[in-house]
Amino acid sequence: MMDRADRFSKKIIETPPSGIRRFFDLVSGSKDIISLGVGEPDFATPWCIREEAFYHLEQGHTSYTSNWGLLELREEISKYLFEKYSLSYSPEDEILITIGVSEAVDLILRSILNPGDELIVAEPCYVSYQPLVAFADAKVVPLDTGKTGMVPRASEIEKLITPNTKALMICTPSNPTGRVVPRDELERIAELAKKHNLWVISDEVYSELVYDGREHCSIGSLPGMKDYTIVLNGFSKAFAMTGWRIGYICCSKELMHQVVKLHQYTTICAPIFSQYAAAEGLRVGRGEVEKMRVSYQQRRNLMMKGFADMGLPVTEPEGAFYIFPDIRGTGLSSEDFATELIKRHKVAVVPGNVFGAGGEGFVRCCYATEIGLLKEALKRMSLFIGELKK
């Protein structure tokens, strides 16, 4: 067959596949492997949300929506943000419904970045950020948070700012560490953004999943920050709606009118029945979210004790449903640790290096899994650690 590599995009050829999906593919179809890999709730979507989708499908509501998304859903999001953060976004032209938060990240990066622009990203970070910045012909400037407790600090961010810096990317609670950026640090980051006229892209998809009485702070709610902030959020994690693919962007109408053009030409709109279901989730489903949050907190506690018993250092996750143990003491790289663990004891975790160079020496474990399986996974991992010490 003729070699047609020259017919493909060089940028795509040079982009490695997602490290998370690679381990997901290893697990797929294997019944005896316990997966702590993919970040997906083990709960089914709450019934009240599913029933709303059934109703609209039965009514034949299967058309396109506005490019902006259902006004009904945008109004519910606007109410939610005002009630939770006193943040005021117009449902008409400051909120856009996307196909998951992944599309939201892509749209925003391609809407604000020009070739040569720099985006400061706190590492370890979600695997999609860096490739999507590259697709926008811009440059990621990594901020290694390993020496600051896996939390970005304004003092460290300022050292990386250059005339080419366009924006900062913050995810709190963090994927993969579960760390939450405290309000006082967000205030310092906000002052930095205003001083240097920078966008702050705030990925808040885990905002409902915080523990031990903490409250999530949206940086856009801080004084003078709304015009500098781009809020990204969605329903996949908190509402157990990963397959429904509903996310959203909140930003100034001036920026949004640019973002929506890209959305028009790429995806048109999110599925209508998913949008109706998400609106119902905001109206009546938040009690179900709280039940899931409590369960995740219990599982977090179980994982913390398990890793302590193994002698693996770990910083306590304050949100999301991930834990990021330090495996440097084993002498293995993140890749080798994850590969050997799945081979020897059939437990799948994600090597920390896929989240950027700052993740090397760690592995990500998702504890959105049934308690019995978590206990068995910890038992198998403990055996593995014991073998490595011999």
TrEMBL record:
One of its GO terms (biological process) is amino acid metabolic process. It comes from the Bacteria. This is Aminotransferase. The keyword RNA-binding does not apply. It is an enzyme of class 2 (transferase). Its cofactor is pyridoxal 5'-phosphate. Residues 31-380 form the Aminotransferase class I/classII large domain. Keywords: Aminotransferase, Pyridoxal phosphate, Transferase. Signal peptide: none annotated.
